[in-house]
């Protein structure tokens, strides 16, 4: 039961990591390392898609694997790319130089000492976020029990990515909200300054600020801050011009 205990412990440890603040690259590197330690594969790597849909390497279990994954991206062929493009697992496949599904990738992998490959998509519902690549120096297929564990690691990696992106998006929205609230305070102060100095009501003061910002292609908050600082062009405080009657 030692190996099973190791698998369970690894999954629990990784799940616990998601509760705290974590570095997604470090966590995915841990996924790659655990695949090698527990599943009998020789190397593992994780690729993720950018918001534009381009795959990039984020984690690998060794320098050899890192270089091979970069070659896969450059050649635009290989198990990881197929798993990402189709959203389906790529079953165990023995590599043959210059032939098969990935002739260029196979040649590079064999030169690096690998004999077989499989890959799993990092998928959430209908969205594929990346892929987990597993390579072996033998041609022996992975046991079904190990494939199940590999899928569990892939699912956990997917959850970590989704959570990380959700946290980043929440932080971005919070920052935008805080900036908007701060900007509003500046604008309200500027309205008061203009209202007092020009002798107009707050609504008219705001209209003059906004009109000046639009006519001069400047941010309203910047114009308001300049009004508070006393550096704004006096023309901004002048009554808005209206077209003469025809």
SSE sequence, one letter per element: HHEEHHEHEEHHH
Number of strands: 5
* Termini gap: 93 Å
Summarize model confidence as the mean pLDDT.
82
Find the structural class using helix and strand composition.
alpha+beta
Tell me what the structure shows:
The protein is of the alpha+beta class and 246 residues long. Helices cover 57% and strands 15% of the residues. It has helices at residues 2-17, 24-39, 63-75, 79-86, 103-111, 144-198, 202-215, 220-229; strands at 43-49, 55-60, 90-94, 116-124, 127-136. Strands 2-1-5-4-3 form a five-stranded antiparallel β-sheet, with helices on both faces. A hairpin with a 5-residue loop joins strand 1 and strand 2 (55-60). The longest helix is centred in the last third of the chain and has 55 residues, at 144-198.
Provide key terms for this protein.
8 helices, disordered C terminus, 5 strands, five-stranded antiparallel beta sheet
SSE arrangement:
Blueprint: H1 2-17, H2 24-39, E1 43-49, E2 55-60, H3 63-75, H4 79-86, E3 90-94, H5 103-111, E4 116-124, E5 127-136, H6 144-198, H7 202-215, H8 220-229
Antiparallel strand pairs: 1-2, 1-5, 3-4, 4-5
Helix pairs in contact: 1-2, 1-6, 2-6, 3-5, 6-7, 6-8, 7-8
């Amino acid at each position: 039961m030692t190996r099973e205990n190791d698998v369970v412990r690894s999954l629990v440890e990784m799940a616990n990591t998601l509760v705290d603040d974590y570095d997604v690259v470090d966590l995915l590197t841990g996924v790659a390392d655990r695949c090698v330690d527990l599943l009998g594969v020789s190397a593992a790597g994780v690729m993720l898609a950018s918001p534009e849909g381009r795959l990039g390497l984020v984690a690998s279990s060794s320098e050899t694997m890192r270089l091979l994954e970069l070659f896969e991206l450059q050649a635009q062929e290989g198990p990881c790319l197929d798993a990402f493009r189709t959203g389906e697992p790529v079953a165990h496949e023995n590599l043959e130089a210059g032939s098969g599904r990935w002739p260029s990738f196979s040649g590079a992998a064999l030169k690096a000492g690998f004999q077989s490959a499989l890959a799993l998509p990092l998928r959430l519902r209908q969205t594929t976020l990346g892929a987990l690549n597993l390579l072996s120096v033998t041609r022996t297929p992975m046991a079904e029990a190990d494939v199940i564990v590999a899928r569990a690691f892939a699912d956990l990696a997917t959850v970590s990515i989704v959570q990380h992106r959700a946290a980043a998006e929440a932080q971005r929205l919070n920052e935008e909200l805080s900036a908007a609230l701060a900007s509003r305070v500046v604008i309200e102060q500027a309205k008061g300054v203009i209202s007092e100095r020009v002798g107009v009501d707050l609504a008219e003061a705001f209209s003059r600020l906004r009109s000046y910002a639009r006519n001069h292609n400047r941010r309203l908050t910047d114009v308001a801050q300049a009004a508070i600082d006393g550096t704004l062009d006096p023309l901004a405080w002048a009554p808005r011009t209206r077209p003469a009657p025809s």
